[in-house]
Specification:
There is one protein chain. With about 150 residues, the chain is mostly helical. About 70% of the residues lie in helices and about 0% in strands. It is built from five helices and no strands. Helix 2 crosses helix 3 and helix 2 packs parallel to helix 4. The longest helix is centred in the middle third of the chain and has 39 residues. The mean pLDDT is about 75.
Length: about 150
C-alpha cells in the first residue's frame, strides 16, 4: 500500500521511475481495507487523487481571482503591486476571468471615481456658461420676497 502511494505521488510529480509491479517482496499478500479487491482499491485511490487534483485547481483559481481583485484595487488607489499576486496568476495559468459579481464590484468603483472627476470638470464647464446678471436678479428677487414676508427685516 505504501508503494502504491509513493508510486502515485511520483507519477503526479512527473518522475520517470516505473512503479513496482507484482506482489510484495516478502511474499505476503497485502491486506486491503474493508475486504476490497485490489482493482477496486486502485480505482478508489485513483478517484481520490482525481478529486484532490480538481479541488487544488479550484482552490488555485479562487486564489488567482482574489489576487486579480487585489491588483485592480492597488491600481485604483495607486498602491505598490505585490509579487505574490503575480505568482498566483501564473500558477492559475496566466489570465484569470473574474466572476461577474467581483468584476462588477471592481468596475463600479472605478466608474464612480471617473464620474467624480468628470463631474468636477463638467461643473467647471457649466460654471463658465452661467449668466451672472440673471443670477444676480434671481438673488435680489428672492431677498425682496423674504423682506416682504418677514417683518423683522
Amino acid at each position: 500500500m505504501a508503494t502504491f502511494f509513493t508510486a502515485a505521488l511520483k507519477g503526479f510529480q512527473g518522475s520517470k521511475e516505473e512503479p513496482p509491479k507484482g506482489p510484495p517482496k516478502d511474499g505476503k499478500v497485502a491486506t486491503l481495507p474493508n475486504g476490497m479487491a485490489r482493482e477496486e482499491f486502485e480505482e478508489y485511490q485513483r478517484q481520490l487523487l482525481e478529486e484532490k487534483i480538481e479541488r487544488d485547481k479550484a482552490f488555485a483559481q479562487r486564489k488567482a481571482e482574489r489576487a486579480t481583485v487585489r491588483m485592480h484595487l492597488r491600481d485604483k488607489y495607486h498602491l505598490a503591486q505585490d509579487e505574490r499576486d503575480d505568482a498566483q496568476l501564473h500558477v492559475a495559468g496566466g489570465t484569470v476571468e473574474l466572476p461577474q459579481e467581483l468584476a462588477a464590484m471592481v468596475h463600479s468603483e472605478e466608474e464612480e471615481e471617473e464620474e467624480d472627476g468628470a463631474g468636477a470638470f463638467a461643473f467647471l464647464m457649466r460654471l463658465r456658461e452661467v449668466d451672472l446678471s440673471e443670477l444676480r436678479g434671481r438673488a435680489l428677487g428672492t431677498v425682496d420676497e423674504v423682506k416682504e414676508k418677514c417683518t423683522l427685516m
